[in-house]
Amino acid sequence: MMKQFLSNLQHKHGVLTKTLLTIICILAIVWVIPDDVRFQYEFEKGKPWLHEDLYAPYDFAILKNESELKEEKSEIIKRAVPYYQVDSTAINAIYQNIELAIDVAFPHVTDSDRKKHEKTVHKLIDPVIQKGIVEQGVISDSIEQVNSIRLVTNHRVTDLGLDELYTLQQASDNILQRAVKLGYSDTLVEVSITIENLQPTVKYNKQLTDNFLDEKLTSIPVAFGKVKEAERIISKGEIVDDLSFRKLQSLKTEYEKQSLDNVASIWVNVGQIIITTMALLVLIGYLAIFRIEIYAETGKFALVLSIFTLTILMGSLSLYFEQIPIYLIPFPMLAILIRNFFDSKLAAFTMLLNMLVIGLLAPNGFEFVFIESITGLIAIFSMSNLIRRRQFIISTVIMFLAYSLVYSAFTLIKEGTPTEFETNN
User: Fold this and answer.
1) From CA 329, how far away is CA 317, in angstroms rounded?
2) CB count, 10 Å around CB of 178?
């Protein structure tokens, strides 16, 4: 009995291995596909609404698009008023350095003469310190020309024009002019000591400026309107204009933010398992009927399923890494890999099934499937007689041109003008 069982197990080893590989592939694919809510409608700006009349299921805000928010943020940063603070440490350092310089310049004078020198210096520098010497060249380039600042003194904020403060050069010029008015020579030692020890006393406070900017940026309203519950959003056959598109996009965003409960999440996973299983069964059926030599050999069978699964795993990268747009992932290269191991027919069939599954992950499923399928088929056809290495380079160029052409065609259809090409997809 045991021998018969082991004999049957040995004969069915290939079937069990293929079954196990198929289950592993299904679980791997379902694992990377998010089980969140998906908006059930497809729509494009400038195209007719092909579904039934749509009414708002609940109140939701009409969101601004990214370019509008970016423009508003940029405008706030450009017009930002920077914060400055009186630096008492710098003021004390100026007076201490001046006292040391007087001791060096007049080492053998009496106390009364020393006080005269100090009094002369104070007459020159006190008005400058009182007005303030502003620090320059420290403001972010993103802030446009600054004509006014907010000066923080003893926890009080005062708005000042830049012309109400001295620069270092203006402070030096003012001291020289004051020396002439007071009857001092501009070569007087006290004048030189005073000018040499000048430094900014009103300094840029980056932390306060950044906090102010953050407060302003976070207070930007992300919406410009509201749709009330049961309000009609769009009717069947109506052209999706800019306002309708924004409403639909906002509803989609709000809808997809909803979290699923445990029961709903299980049903979503069931649906994903069914779709993935059907795709793999179609691929396995193709191998079993038309490519029996591949189906019969477990190694080749495993290679085809591995490439199929790897392609979908690559497609999921765009869901978890914003820096990797789904359109930049080289899906046709994996089809070329199958073509090099087997033949063009299997490569084309596998790639089409791949794109149908990955279309579930793409923002616009039909557009993605069409672009990637056309590009992949052209790539496979262009390598049908691959003999020399340079033919691979030529095939790559052809594939890139085909991709660019089809993508540009979709952009023209959606936008109606070549000036609206989006290069960051």
Assistant:
1) 9
2) 17
